[in-house]
Amino acid sequence: SFSADEVIRKRLLIDGDGAGDDRRINLLVKSFIKWCNSGSQEEGYSQYQRMLSTLSQCEFSMGKTLLVYDMNLREMENYEKIYKDIENSIAAAHEKISECKKQILQAKRIRKNRQEYDALAKVIQHHPDRHETLKQLEALGKELQNLSHIKENVEDKLELRRKQFHVLLSTIHELQQTLENDEKLSEAEESQETQMEAEAKQ
């Protein structure tokens, strides 16, 4: 039978892009609670290493999302450049067609001019369809917007977990300080009682 940690680890390995962030953060919180309740130094060190590993996974996932976001931005710029080149090519082709029509009307070699026109039309047909390019640009825009939302959500969740972690550490530090003060007070009282007993015997 698998333990809960092994099941969570296997799910994280199988998980796809982005959807495992919540699980990683939950695993981090669970590891932190185990670390706080660890009974031995060895167990505490093991839980500490798990927390570091989970944090690294979260940072890697966030970095991956940022890389995909940057890659899509570059791809968007590339499509915009292609779109401009297509527009320029279409404009140039229209000018050429207009010129060819004038040459056809003026020239005596109508057949030769028609062949040039057909060849130029074939060149235009090889260019990507402008409507399809616009659809691709629109799809990329939506994907970029979705990735931006995912990035913001991940950053908000990580910031919340950092604040909660800081509060827990502060509470532990205050509790430790209180225990140390109580221990010092007990030692002082015992020392005073020992001194009073010695004086009574004299």
UniProtKB/TrEMBL annotation:
The keyword S-adenosyl-L-methionine does not apply. One of its GO terms (biological process) is mRNA processing. Residues 181-202 are annotated as: Disordered. Keywords: Coiled coil, Nucleus. GO terms for cellular component: THO complex part of transcription export complex. It comes from the Eukaryota. Pfam families: THOC7 (PF05615). Residues 76-103 form a coiled coil. It is found in: Nucleus. The keyword Repeat does not apply. Belongs to the THOC7 family. Component of the THO subcomplex of the TREX complex which is thought to couple mRNA transcription, processing and nuclear export, and which specifically associates with spliced mRNA and not with unspliced pre-mRNA. Required for efficient export of polyadenylated RNA. Plays a key structural role in the oligomerization of the THO-DDX39B complex. This is THOC7 protein. The gene is Thoc7.
